[in-house]
Amino acid sequence: xxxxxxxxxxxxxxxxxxxxxxxxxxxxxxxxxxxxxxxxxxxxxxxxxxxxxxxxxxxxxxxxxxxxxxxxxxxxxxxxxxxxxxxxxxxxxxxxxxxxxxxxxxxxxxxxxxxxxxxxxxxxxxxxxxxxxxxxxxxxxxxxxxxxxxxxxxxxxxxxxxxxxxxxxxxxxxxxxxxxxxxxxxxxxxxxxxxxxxxxxxxxxxxxxxxxxxxxxxxxxxxxxxxxxxxxxxxxxxxxxxxxxxxxxxxxxxxxxxxxxxxxxxxxxxxxxxxxxxxxxxxxxxxxxxxxxxxxxxxxxxxxxxxxxxxxxxxxxxxxxxxxxxxxxxxxxxxxxxxxxxxxxxxxxxxxxxxxxxxxxxxxxxxxxxxxxxxxxxxxxxxxxxxxxxxxxxxxxxxxxxxxx
Length: 405
Known about the structure:
Helix content: 55-70%
Oligomer: single chain
Distance between the termini: 31 Å
Number of helices: 16
CATH class of the largest domain: Mainly Alpha
């Protein structure tokens, strides 16, 4: 008997686990929600916020319950759960998935950032977020969260015919368009910040492009394409992208590369163009040969396997299925899944760990970064396998005029 569980069954197991807490949980970056940190007033100490956040992100032990970090829902995590529920509905057709997705979508609508300030639908994280480039208070909208929520709402609205959700996603595209910077022809990650990060720029371009397509807005589409060309021009000759343009953005990692390729694919579809086909092909060739080892191990960085990371695995599956889409890509996705079961899955806990290093493992349960991503990606893989099996069955089934049977 195979040691590898069926991807659909495993996706169902992850869904039940996430649903047991009503999709609330911890996040690698939620350390600043700590009641203890606030009481000690450590934010007045230079770099204390980044140090505190990184301590909790990197620790193999989950100190959050001890320092007063509550488990909460994350808007991006909920968006991924909705996308996963739609994949599950395509597989099992029991209608519960749509009802649950609708319930979660209503919650997302309630979690929109303050419309008086931002004018349009937008979403951010439920925690203060400190990085070297900027500090972002909780609730401040950001490009990536808004893009994923818009994608989930649009997909749900299209599946159900509920135009409220499609309209909400389209309106989010107008917020994202407000992040366009004329001084560089790109979309910023955070309102008022100038950091140029490729995955934020490209996903925003894709989401604005989809809004432009629904609205029939040539002006929106022109800006989306111009921003995508800017990132395209900065793609290296080998097909790679640095994370961004600042000095400390020089690293190249797998899941952000996958984001870039998926976003370009979505934008091409929205714009009815093949303008970026060469960029995508070049990037996919680089992605396959650089980030995926022959045994299916997914590397984190271009120059380092470690850490093995469930998020990286999930994006690899999505990239190969949605962007590559060849039989060889699908076979590679199956190999990646089996390797992830061997290296990252925790059978006793029936979930995936966060990361595995060369000598140790971080098994903290993160819903947004780990389980939600795995649920969505495994749902896609299961539907792909089901579709492939159905095609093979049709190919070998005897027909009335097939004389070889």
